[in-house]
Structure formats: C-alpha cells, structure tokens
Amino acid sequence: MPEPTRATRTSRIGVVALLILAGQALVSRIVSTYDQPPPYSPNLQSFPARIGSWVGSQDHVLEADVAELLRPDEYLLRDFESQDHTHAISLFFAYFKSVSSGYGPHSPNDCLPGAGWQITSRDTLSISVPGKKDGIRVNRYVVARDDQRILVLYWYQNDRRVWAEESVSRLYKLTDLIRYHRSDASLVRVITPLSNDTPADAQIEMASQFIRQIFPVVQDHLARVRQTPATSPSL
C-alpha cells in the first residue's frame, strides 16, 4: 500500500482539527443551552459541629489565592478532633453550583506540589459507607514536606453520584447537563497527619471511620439542592 503523500496527511490533520472544533462547539452549545444551576443551597454553614465521636474544633477561611483559584459557591473548612483528643482531622467540603465556567473541584494532585508537598504514594481506596451497598471509591495520597507526612483522602460528589476519577468528570458533566440541566459538583477532602508511632493501616482506618460518620451528613446537605429533571430542549 502506497504511503500517504504530504498533502494527504495535511488534509487528514485538517479534518481532525475540524472535528475537534466541531466537538468543542457542540459542548459549548450544550453548556449554554442546558446549564441551569440549582437555586437551592446545601447550606454548609449548618454542617453539624459534632458528628459521632468527632467534635469540630475550629473553622478556617480559605487563603485569598486559593479562593480565587477555586471560586466555590459554598465551602466548609473545619478541624475535627476525636473525643479523647488523640486524633485530628481536617475536613474540606466545597460546593460548586456550576462547573461550566471553568472553575470547580480542584484535584489536590495539582495544588499539593505547588504548596511544597511531595507526593510519596497515591492510589484509590474503597470505603464502606451507610446507604451505599458497594461503598465508595476515594483517592488516597500520602504526601511529605520536611519531616511531616499527611494522609489525604478525597472524592467528588453531588446528589446523583459519588466518584473518585478525575477522568470521568467531563463525561458526568455532559450527561448531567442533558438529563438534569445541571453540572453542580462538590469536592470532599479529608486530611490527617501521619505518625511514625502508629501503623499506617490503623491511621487509614481511623480516617475511614471519620468518612463513614460524615458521609450521611454530606449526602443530606447535597440533597437539599435536588431538582426534578426537566424536559430537555432540542439542540
């Protein structure tokens, strides 16, 4: 079979470029036609200060540059302590009414290295939680800076699903825009320091227990923005 000429290759590249542009135009049209951010709020400021065996100790405000980067519509950044004061956990729960503007949940994979943390390991973890027969998948990172090590567990969630993979976020966005007229999403992140005096498995289980206790509360707050699917307009 003869090799394609330069003109043929250029023509094929041009066709691919046109298809990409057409796809981008279609996505933009879907976004502009379908996206109707929910009018209701998850009201994260009413998130309970005591959840199971954990007690909220302090709320924080995002640093200005982080707030500008993320632009969440609502967020909660709260420290929790176990009742015996032996364990500490930081919870970050950020909600975005629409991710179509380009702002939205931001993977710690992007921001942690910028803050000087080195990722030493990363994978996903399955955690059993109330109301989910198969549990949920969360991202698990261990990061280090100087002599500090921390465990980071995070996932994405709305009132329709829970997911860990950044790669499927765009697919969910398009299907949700068409079916629900919505692209709202939240990031839920749990951070706890790691101690060399305690087995890693025990510390991961402690953080998992915290997630089991807060998960129904997270679901309840996200359910407050639920809307009945509307009839889809024609493209």
Kindly describe this structure:
This protein is an alpha+beta fold. The protein has one domain. The protein has five helices and nine strands. Strands 1, 2, 3, 4, 5, 6, 7, 8 and 9 form a nine-stranded antiparallel sheet that branches. The longest helix has 29 residues. The radius of gyration is 21 Å and the shape is globular. The termini are far apart. The C terminus is likely disordered.
Could you list some keywords that capture this structure?
235 residues; alpha+beta; nine-stranded antiparallel β-sheet; globular; disordered C terminus
How many domains, as an integer? 1
**In total, how many beta strands?**
9
Strand content: 25-35%
The chain-level mean pLDDT equals 82
Succession of helices and strands: HEEHEEHEEEEHEH
Shape: globular
Q: Give the proportion of residues in helices.
A: 25-40%
- Would you tell me the structural class of the helices and strands? alpha+beta
Summed up, the helix count is: 5
Our Rg estimate from Cα atoms comes to: 21 Å
Distance separating the two termini:
42 Å
Oligomer: single chain
Q: What secondary-structure arrangement, pairings included, does this model have?
A:
Blueprint (H helix, E strand, L loop, with lengths): L5 H29 L15 E2 L2 E6 L4 H7 L3 E9 L5 E9 L11 H7 L3 E12 L2 E14 L2 E10 L4 E2 L5 H12 L4 E9 L6 H24 L12
Antiparallel strand pairs: 1-2, 2-3, 3-4, 4-9, 5-6, 6-7, 7-8, 7-9
Helix pairs in contact: 1-4
